[in-house]
Amino acid sequence: MCLAIPGKIVEFTDEENQIAQVEVGGVRRHINIGMLDRDALRIGDYVLIHVGFAMSKVDEKEAEATLRLLQDLGSYEAEVAQDEIH
User: Fold this and answer.
1) Domain 5-81 falls in which CATH fold?
2) Euclidean distance between the first and final Cα of the chain, in Å?
3) What is the Cα–Cα distance from 65 to 5, expressed in whole angstroms?
4) What are the structural domain ranges in the chain?
5) How many CA atoms lie within 13 A of 45 on its CB side?
6) Measured between alpha carbons, how far is 16 from 32 in angstroms, rounded to an integer?
7) What is the dihedral of CA 3, 7, 84, 34, to 10 degrees?
8) What is the pLDDT of residue 85?
């Protein structure tokens, strides 16, 4: 099963390569934002992440509800742990 996880943009780390740092459940990771309109993205925005790529921008309430549901199910910890940044 494929799962997209909401992450909050906390930093744009590499504009040339379209890389941003996002936070998911307290863990930060780098993702590619090249599929989205960079001019429409801001620090604090939520994006849906799938295999290291931001697939779409999502509403904050929807993102937080999804994260709560995933946390309750215990389904996202393995995905987040793949690319942890310390």
Assistant:
1) SH3 type barrels. (2.30.30)
2) 28
3) 11
4) 5-81
5) 19
6) 11
7) 90
8) 53
